[in-house]
Every structure is written in structure tokens, then in C-alpha cells.
TrEMBL record:
The chain crosses the membrane at residues 12-39, 59-76, 85-106, 184-205, 212-230, 236-255. Belongs to the peptidase S54 family. It comes from Echinicola jeungdonensis. This is Rhomboid family intramembrane serine protease. It comes from the Bacteria. Residues 47-106, 168-253 form the Peptidase S54 rhomboid domain.
Length: 263
């Protein structure tokens, strides 16, 4: 697997690592500008659907994505050719950003409906449910406030405080950025699994051999599970990973219809 780096993979690695160094040590404000935001956020710009792929939260986030590209990318580039590996990486990355933005818009719409229901009919139990669903964004003292509010549900000061808290959480969620090339990497991963299903890989953790098709299946099932679980404490964009898998699978299926086009 540790074969010589191919041109496209090498350039993607150099560009992504270079951008990480620049945004981490020299132009730190640049990452906040190039990350991907909710489409109705005041911080959203269309070019972020491309640039977010080259942003990473920290070294380990960068390392995991680039290590995957380093391992699986060269053989794919040799098989597909430089044009198709670049298309695979960019289409899966941008496509994941687009689908994730749609998913985020759906979630924000659900949140807005929840807020509107509370504004029209303020109720302590409804606010308590909202806090439970977003407990990771509240301080522990919020439960003392909920107790006070429950004992005096018509208190306008309590109602106003609850509304302000919900607006704050809504605004915070609207401005949480997404960064990383994970969607693109998952596209590469599914492509590798579909084209080289029986290739034996050796995992580091746990140290054991596994065929590529089983590794991809595991990642796919885990990603679907994580999306369905929707753990509010989990800051990983699992839906973007799932999007990369789906888009990559569609691309490879399309290309496999005419195998001569691989070369």
C-alpha cells in the first residue's frame, strides 16, 4: 500500500497540508472565513462549498484524512487515472458539502418550528424538552431556572428569558462551521472498496487483516448508525461522511459501465 505517491494525490496532500499550516500559524482568521456555514447564516458564502474541504480543525483531523488519502489514493489514481481521481475527490467533497447543507437546513427548519410553537404558546415543559435536546449547549444552572419557571409559568420575565435562551441556541447552531475533507475521503474509501473489494488491508487498531469490502461496509454501517443516533454531543459531521460514500458509489457505478474509460 505504501507505494510511490502519484501526482494528483501528492498535490492534494501538499495543498491541504500547506493550507493547514497557513491557517494555523499565519492567517488564523482565514479558517473562519473559508469554513462551511449554514446556508442562511450571515457568514455563509457560496465558495465555502469548495474551500471547507481544505480546512481542518486540528492536526489529528488533518492527519486522519490525509493518511487515508495517502493509503488509498495512489492505487486508485493508477487505476482510474489522474483525471478521474481528481473528479472523485472534488465531486465527493463538494457534493458532501451541498448535501450536508441541505441536511442542516432541514434541522434548522425543525428548530425554527419548535421555537415558533413556544413563542405562540409558552410552556415550561416545552422549554424543558428544548433544553434536554440541546443540553450540551446549556450551563448546569439552567435546570434551576426550569424549576422556577415550572412553578410560575405565566411569569413574563421567565418567558422572556426562555425565549432569549432559545434564540441564542438557534443563533449558535446557525453559525457552527463544518471543515475537513472527510466527505471526499469517504468517496475514495467506497471507490477503493468497490474496485478492489478483496484487497487485504492490515489495520493498526486493532492489529488485524481485513478485506477492503468489509472495512467499507463497517464504515458505512457505523456512519448510518451515527446519523440515525444524532447524538447532540457528537461534533462529527456523519451525514457528510454518508454523503461522500453515496456520491462515490454512484460515480464508480457510472464509470464501471464503461471500463475502457478508466485508462
Amino acid at each position: 500500500m505504501f507505494r510511490s505517491l502519484t501526482p494528483v494525490v501528492k498535490n492534494l496532500l501538499l495543498i491541504t497540508i500547506g493550507v493547514f499550516v497557513i491557517t494555523s500559524f499565519f492567517l488564523k482568521d482565514l479558517q473562519a472565513w473559508l469554513a462551511l456555514y449554514y446556508i442562511e447564516s450571515r457568514r455563509f458564502m457560496p465558495f465555502q462549498l469548495l474551500t471547507y474541504m481544505f480546512m481542518h480543525a486540528d492536526f489529528w483531523h488533518l492527519f486522519s484524512n490525509m493518511f487515508g488519502l495517502f493509503i488509498f489514493g495512489p492505487l486508485l489514481e493508477q487505476f482510474l487515472g489522474p483525471k478521474k481521481i481528481l473528479i472523485l475527490w472534488m465531486v465527493c467533497g463538494i457534493g458532501s458539502g451541498v448535501l450536508y447543507s441541505g441536511y442542516t437546513a432541514y434541522q434548522m427548519n425543525q428548530l425554527d418550528n419548535q421555537l415558533e410553537s413556544f413563542y405562540n404558546n409558552p410552556d415550561p415543559e416545552m422549554f424543558n424538552q428544548f433544553v434536554s435536546e440541546n443540553r450540551h449547549m446549556f450551563k448546569p444552572g439552567i435546570y434551576d431556572f426550569i424549576d422556577d419557571y415550572s412553578h410560575d409559568p405565566d411569569n413574563q420575565n421567565y418567558i422572556q428569558r426562555a425565549e432569549d435562551s432559545m434564540k441564542y441556541i438557534r443563533e449558535s447552531k446557525a453559525n457552527v462551521p463544518m471543515v475537513g475533507a472527510s466527505g471526499a475521503l469517504f468517496g475514495v474509501l467506497i471507490a477503493f472498496g468497490m474496485l478492489f473489494p478483496n484487497t487485504q488491508l492490515f489495520l493498526l487498531f486493532p492489529p488485524m487483516p481485513i478485506k477492503a469490502k468489509y472495512l467499507v461496509l463497517f464504515y458505512g454501517l457505523y456512519t448510518v448508525y451515527s446519523v440515525l443516533l444524532n447524538n447532540p454531543m457528537d461534533n462529527v459531521a456523519h451525514f457528510a461522511h454518508l454523503s461522500g460514500l453515496i456520491i462515490g458509489a454512484i460515480l464508480v457505478t457510472f464509470w464501471k459501465k464503461n471500463r475502457t474509460s478508466f485508462y
